[in-house]
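Good morning,

Attaching, inline, the backbone tokens for the sequence recovery test we're adding to the shared suite. The designed sequence is right after.
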């Protein structure tokens, strides 16, 4: 009886290519069609684990944790300085679902920086902001602006302690005029004092007290 040999079914070549294209585990640099590239860990074709993403056109780089294709965990974000041509860190902290979330530090232009909590990419919770003019705000934040209880210290050491709303003084608060040796305590609305009392406070130590003390009622 003659032996009939049937040709072995060959697997289409694209099957092999597809298996090799699946990204899982640690991979070398992977380029996108627009020139961006990523180096790090993958899971089911998604960035997952530790990795570095470079956006060439935007001049930005992220180095840190990923979860199912999104920045999630701890990482830093830097942008390219057009003058020095070096990457300058603008944020270092925690991320969730591709947005700043948790504790982190953001560096703005000049000496301005924020240290504190974030939620959904916005300053929310407790935080401290250092401003360009030397002022410092420390307290609660809500949707990227001071909201709740906080203290603003000015460059001349005068300070406000009290309530805030939409980034403005609002509610009961105290303003210490340490340069004059006075204290105003009252109610504020949209940065404007509406009612309260003004008394001498540390007048003898003040560098520039008024000519006459405030009479007692």
């Amino acid at each position: 009886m003659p032996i009939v040999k049937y040709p072995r079914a060959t697997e289409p070549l694209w099957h092999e290519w597809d298996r090799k294209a699946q990204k899982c585990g640690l991979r070398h640099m992977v380029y996108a069609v627009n020139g961006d590239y990523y180096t790090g860990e993958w899971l089911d074709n998604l960035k997952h684990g530790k990795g570095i993403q470079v956006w060439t056109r935007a001049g930005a780089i992220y180095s840190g944790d990923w979860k199912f294709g999104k920045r999630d965990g701890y990482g830093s974000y830097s942008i390219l300085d057009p003058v020095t041509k070096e990457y300058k860190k603008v944020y270092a902290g925690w991320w969730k679902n591709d947005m700043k979330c948790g504790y982190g530090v953001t560096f703005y232009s000049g000496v301005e920086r924020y240290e504190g909590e974030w939620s959904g990419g916005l300053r929310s919770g407790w935080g401290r902001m250092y401003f360009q003019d030397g002022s410092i705000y420390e307290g609660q934040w809500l949707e990227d602006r001071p909201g709740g209880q906080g203290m603003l210290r000015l460059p001349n050491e005068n300070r406000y302690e009290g309530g805030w709303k939409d980034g403005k003084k609002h509610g009961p608060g105290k303003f210490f005029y340490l340069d004059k040796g006075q204290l105003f305590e009252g109610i504020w609305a949209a940065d404007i004092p509406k009612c309260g009392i003004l008394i001498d406070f540390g007048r003898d130590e003040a560098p520039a007290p008024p000519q006459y003390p405030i009479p007692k009622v």
